[in-house]
Design a protein that fits this description.
Elements lengths: L10 H13 L3 H10 L4 E2 H9 L9 H13 L3 E5 L4 E5 L3 H10 L2 E3 L2 E3 L13
Antiparallel strand pairs: 1-3, 2-3, 4-5
Helix pairs in contact: 2-4
Length: 126
């Protein structure tokens, strides 16, 4: 018998939680989340900060609205303001610990090794 509480395996909850991870599956959306970790930003500020990146994290004005909508729908971001000046804020700050933990994992010889989670300090928490 499993030690996993049955409420954690609720199909509705699993779909909602999977949507959060799905929203983070894009390098551009992950870059937006990490940028908003430092504080609220307008769309123009986000475009300015991310457009110059020479990687998949580059976000052009034409598609940033789509990325922001996905993150809002997943409950990761909120938006205030009017159509002329929208301000985005990171709501799911708890994700930063998970992102940091995942980033701390070292890879060697094709086998992942845990360097210790910065959120809890334990090896193997991820």
């Amino acid at each position: 018998m499993s030690d996993i509480p049955s409420n954690r395996l609720d199909p509705v909850r699993l779909r909602e939680e999977a949507a959060v991870f799905g929203a983070l599956s894009s390098p551009a959306r992950l870059a937006i989340v990490l940028t908003l970790a430092d504080g609220e930003r307008s769309v123009n500020e986000l475009v300015e900060m991310l457009a110059g990146l020479d990687c998949a994290c580059s976000v052009e004005r034409t598609n940033i609205s789509k990325h922001l909508a996905v993150l809002r729908e997943a409950g990761i971001l909120s938006c205030t303001g009017d159509a002329q000046r929208r301000i985005y804020r990171l709501e799911a700050r708890c994700l930063l610990d998970s992102i940091s933990c995942i980033g701390s994992r070292k890879r060697g010889n094709g086998v992942e090794k845990d360097a210790g989670c910065p959120a809890c300090g334990k090896a193997g928490c991820a």
